[in-house]
User: What shape does this take?
Amino acid sequence: MHREYESIEEDARRMQPAKRVAEYGMFDDGLGEMQYAIVRRNVTNGDLRRLAATCGSLPTYQYRWSWFTRDVFNYLIESIVDWGDRDLLLEVLSTRCPEDVGRHGLIEYYLVLRESKVKEPIVLLSDAYARCRDGDVRRHIAAAFRRGFTASGMTGKDDSEFVSNAVQWYTENRVHLKLNGRHGGPVDPVPPHEEGDPNFRSLSRYESFEPLFVERR
Assistant: This one.
């Protein structure tokens, strides 16, 4: 499977630019879909459950994963959500929390988007934060909250307080809120950092993200 996945990209690299655009689109979207189809076709539910149990062996930072690993992990998250297995999703996200779920967008957006399958997604993310014992992964989960709630006015002296304030605000106001389809913003690879590092904050630019929720009209 891995070889088939890579061979498609190798063939694309050998194409003339005009032919590659005609075949796969300006941004290789068609290529990505073909590669993801290979993953879906070959990875079994048993494979996914084994990955869920061993995902702690993956590098902490998603940008260090190969595109193949990212696609398999995205498929893992999609599948767990489709299964409606909240406990398994909590276990995985508290071990390795990805920044995004491929074409679905940022992790916080995707979970709320699939709220019919993922009950209380914001609470789920806060539970993953509370359960997690890896400092880097905790920051990844906190980053999802900061991306989602900074533009809604949330603050906190540290990540833990920010997450707590965001969950409390959401719980108190959720009846008046809906998912903001424009949520997103510039996402840059963020290297290992200490909480509060000003260089990390300038890289993240949380204030530039659209809020995860907006008021219902």
Notes: Residues 37 and 119 are 28 Å apart (CA to CA). The first strand starts at residue 177 and ends at 179. The first helix runs from residue 2 to 13. DSSP finds eleven helices and two strands in the chain.
